[in-house]
Amino acid sequence: MTAINPVADYAVEGEVAVVTINSPPVNALSQAVREGLKLGVEKAEADPAVKATVIHCAGRTFIAGADITEFGKPHAAPFLPDVLDRIENAKKPVVAALHGTALGGGFEVALTAHYRIAVPSAKCGLPEIKLGLIPGAGGTQRLPRLVGPEKALDVILSGAPFGAREAHQWGVVDALAEEGKLREDALAYAARLIADKAPLTKVRDRDEKLAPARGKPEIFEAARKANARRYRGFEAWEKAIESVRNAVELPFDEGVKKEREMFMALLGSTQSKAQRHVFFAERAAAKIADIGPDIATKPIRSVGVIGAGTMGGGIAMNFLNAGIPVTIVETAKEALDRGVAIIRRNYETTAKKGRMTMAEVEARMARLTPTLDFAALAEPDLVIEAVYENMDLKKQIFGKLDGIARPGAILATNTSYLDVDAIAAQTKRPEDVLGMHFFSPANVMRLLEIVRGEKTSKSVLATVAALAPRIGKVGVTVGVCYGFVGNRMLAERQREAGKLILEGATPSQVDKVLTDFGLPMGPFAMSDLAGLDIGWSAETSKRATIREILCEEGRRGQKTGAGFYDYDAERNAKASPHVEAIIRAFAAEKGIAQREISDQEILERLVYPMINEGAKILEEGKAQRASDIDVVWIMGYGWPVYRGGPMFYADTVGLKTVLDRLKAYQAQFGDDFRPAALLEKLAAEGGSFSKA
Ligand code: 3HC
What we know:
This protein is α/β, with parallel strands linked by helices and 692 residues long. It is built from 27 helices and 20 strands.
């Protein structure tokens, strides 16, 4: 074996050359990998003893794509399209041997090889859409030639990987290797190709799957229709459709040229930068500054959940899904039965949609032990309290739990606002206590705020951080403060939304500004969905706020058919002239002058105070990094991923602009807009949150 360069080796076995790429962790197509591929294929070509070449990767995967860390930086030769040309135009057959995840540029490398062999566990895919891109090295041109434009559109627009067996059925992969024997099987396959004098088949020359689609614009119209809702606000997806259409309508070289132009334009777009930022932000969130691999984690074999309400039930489902048994505790039989029935109904609904079998429903339900006996919490390794938001109740529960849970068990509270340290202080083991703040619906939303208490031990924190991905969550470690990261920032937005409607904006105008921005719903639609009567009581209500007035009128949100909006039987919202009149009268009574408010002002007043609060959170060390705040908002509140999260968005607007606008609003409306010191500092330095 000889080294081609630091990440590529060359070996000859019989008449076959093996070019092995070894660039951990995922063999991404860095300059060195591109060079290794090119030099490897050239070496094989020049070697008279060699009659075929296998491209193979060391480590956990075949090439998993372009090197995303190189995007946006000056690129050094050889460039990927040139490397692919070199492979495709080789005079001796090239076989790509796939294992792990052959994604993006990696899959595109495989598509230029003359033949592909894969182990059954391998996955292929073009996930570029998830980074705000389209495949940029022939993927939109070659894949349709193998599988037809409809299937190619499915793959490219979903970004989802498909397995090697499927790839084999579709004709994308020519042969399946035995699991664990890829290198040997690829060598044997190449030897057979040599013996058979197999032709140098080039995907680019194939037309049989394209010809039937020519002159059928309805194929692309259907893809546009099917994806319009899902990709509202995104730029890349229409380009992907256009590019696949080019594959059908244009000669290969022209299609590839246009694909590259679109790819390069998207690469420079703010949307793709934002989506790449989120890719790395999600992975950075898992890293906790003072917790290295030396910190031992505890085994979590079973979980206890206190409270079978909406949150408790949703939380339990996460663990049941992951194969972890759950004991769920309630105080009254009726509440327990209702909670368990809802969990079952949720699973059955999933089964009806064909996304789970009834056997799986039963298997998950069998892992659930409902009980009214608090003493059953002596068993689990982790107990999560999910009762309603009341400090006295939570303190009481933790006091009691302290006497029951086994030594070393982790005790977590799902509080969304309250002081985790005060809760921990009710136990004689505050080092075992932390917050696990799930977001509603807890079995769906991917965010988990992991609230690190003053005394939480490193091992407890490391255990919960490692548990998050096991239950399909992205864990973000945050510090103790009112509302933690997400709800603390949300409170800023809610406050301004409430002020804006008194000053003359309507609830639907405010909501529309946010949905146009890309959020799934605005503050008033959200309040109606949650119920306006959360925390409201008829006894203490004094018509002192708009919410109190609406609740007193029986307008308690969607569930009552009316709230800030009127709802029809299908729960479609319509602006309510009655509510608008209530708001006008209330403002007049309070002496608040109403005026026309521009959409721009609404957006700035809703979002900039959130960014400002985010800066304060960073100053106080309640979040480790600005990108963690972005992850919280994207995973927990539906912030549009193509805007990269509130802190990344601030960077794209420019921190000086954000600061200037906050100062202008401060002069007009007072200290709700007082800029954070960190924002002042970064703006003065010409800095950004991403680089801070
Ligand atoms: N470039 C650079 N770094 C990458 C990378 C890439 N394409 N893919 C993964 N990494 C890094 C991650 O940042 C992470 O780094 P860290 O350990 O420092 O945090 C490390 O590799 C391991 O990644 P994961 O933690 O995600 O490991 P998993 O095993 O869970 O997942 C994976 C592996 C499925 C390959 C996943 O990382 C992934 O989906 N990667 C992105 C794949 C992708 O989008 N490829 C297309 C790129 S665009 C392209 O190819 C354009 C082309 O058309 C021209």
